[in-house]
Amino acid sequence: MNLVEFFGTKVKPKLCGGKYMFAPLDNTHICDGIYAMRDKDVNAFVYRKANDVIAIDCGYKNSENMIRGLSLLNINPECVSHLFITHLDLDHAGGVDKRCRQLYKNAKIYLGNTESRYAQGELNRKKIGPFGLNTPIQLADNYMVLDDRQTEYIGSIKIQAILIPGHTLGHLCYLVDDRYLFTGDSLILVRRKGYCFYNQWNVDSKFNMLSSQKLKNIDKVELIITSHSGYTNRMDEALLHIHELPNWKEKGFAVCENAPYDPYN
User: Fold this and answer.
1) Would you tell me how many other CB atoms lie within 10 Å of the CB of residue 46?
2) pLDDT of residue 246
3) Distance between CA atoms of 173 and 27, rounded to whole angstroms?
4) Of 52, 156, 211, 229, most Cβ neighbours within 10 A?
5) Which domains occur in the chain, in start order?
6) Residues 94-104: pLDDT tens digits?
């Protein structure tokens, strides 16, 4: 276990417990073939349209929560043909670590071109003084990389990658069928209004705030779907405070009214 993984699995739950910082959806069918599986503090997603099934992110390593969620929602993970990773953090990409059980063993894996440099050890996920810490995810060599605004067609599904660097330098959002925007950790909804993600997990929060402005130029989005704080159909509210950091230390802070006290329980 490297230090980034130790922080994510041991320190983060103690830091966030009781702070009401995350409010992932419980296992649910959101709408129109979009399914959310909850893995502790995070959601991963499946999108099913006609005979085509894709996934966006895949939860923690060897996640029983993901297996349980897929089963409850009647989704066969072997039917997922393509998996699109927003970024290589443990809670989003643990299910593709080559040393672990593969959640979607038949799926082609996609991630951002710049994000792949974390997998190759060219970029550090975190720096502590002069020491660089690498991502805890190790990938097999058969993944595909996506550039900004690159569009892929998976049968009847259209999916466009949108580079929003800041949380990580290669973080991608995904626009699916020109209707649904999956934002990963580029923003967090606080009482249904969008902010830059929490500073302590960003590589560069100012960069994140700047790059997120391009999301304002996407037309006709019906849902904005985050990884840690649910979704909204209000594009104006979802991008209202993306130039600001949420102050989770202020008295009475809660990401939403029903945020769980301990999302890791």
Assistant:
1) 25
2) 96
3) 21
4) 229
5) 3-238 (3.60.15.10)
6) 999 999 999 99
